[in-house]
Specification:
single chain, 453 residues, alpha/beta, Purple Acid Phosphatase, chain A, domain 2, 2 domains, five-stranded mixed sheet, Ap4A_hydrolase, phosphatase activity, Metallophosphoesterase, Metallo-depent_PP-like
Length: 453
Amino acid sequence: MTNPYLLPNDLYSLLFIGDVHGRVDKLNALLEQECFIEHELVDEDEKSDFYTSRVVFVGDLIDNSHGHNADHITTLERVKYLMDKGVAHCVMGNHELNAIGWLLKNDQGQPLRKHSDKNRKQHALFLEQLGENSELHHQWVNWFKTLPIFIDFGSITAIHACWKSSIIEKLKPYLNSDNSLKSEYWHNAFDEQHELLELLEVALKGPEYELPASYSFKDKTGFERRNIRAKWWMEDATTYADVAQVPASEVENIPEITLAESARIEPLDKPVIVGHYTLFGVPKLQSSKVACVDYNGARDSNPLVGYRFELQRDESDLVQLDDEQFTFSFKRETMDSVSKGKLELLEGYLDSLPAIGEHELKKYHHQLEAISDTLRLEWDPIGVGSEPEMDDEYYAYIQPVLQLLLHSERNVLAYYLLACEQEYMGVERECAELSCGLVANQLTHAWDLNQPS
């Protein structure tokens, strides 16, 4: 059977996007930041990354709580629009599966997913915004049913929670050619007596393993449990302690006992991108072949995370994942805030130093000329060299340098020079820190030797 997801040769990358949970504001920010400009989809004269790349959503487009600026309808319309244009893919998440089960009914007229208080609370905002049992509600649930359970792009795969080859092979008979679930199996997907329920649970929620007899742990609510969520990506894992995802305080309760045969970790033959796991901190790989892009972007204070995978055309090249390929909404603003903070501290310090009056400037006339020459000939981050018409290129930096020399601030002077070239001028050059340190030493030494009388 032909793989419908094999990519054309004119594509250069895939941008995998984590669990959106209705946060279309963060989705739009991430797409714009990564140069996926919407208006260019219909403007053939201008190109954007939509023409050389594809966006891949890893599921959980829906469900969030009140107060987090979620807009389910606009989120779904945005994602479907991109998919209809042929520039995006989306796999099913466990929240889409839950939404299907909430609306569909069994032969007895009962919902496939229980309408318990807990389940309703999780799904409430989605139901409120679409209108429970409305035409719009039915429309989007029918669309959810068309989403693939997984996508294999050839060199990399996407699934919401867990890729295990044994699970994938068992799922295939239940799937259409595009990896969406065949319509006749939806009731089986929620039947605890049918294998399909467990297969989907593993694929969309991750595997659970039962601990050996007499072992248990307490979850974050204090409830005692005997089943652990497993780090299925830990290829070198051999014991329950190696794979257990439990609170840090409970790690000691997980035994260093060899995993049962049914729980053995399966090696991966290609990289996998997943969502689902609600991680935190700076995004990083889970293993050499697994990247998770769910860093709780549903919440206001967290970014929506993505992973940019560069496609390799030479089949002999080793396909590898890299921490540097993670990106996230408002990444530039986040990084800029650090730079701006440093500059504000530096500028505040310079402002705190006594101002240099006109009389003093005349007193230091020769020193100012020497500073100017050193900045132009020795520091020179933009490469003006000895061109006479460029004598005043670094004029704005001369007086602050004099202020720092007057107060014997060699270390601050070195950082000031570095900040000037990197933040004010936007110059990045090799050995910049070393160069600025050496120039600061040179200026300080010359100052000490040539103090005005």
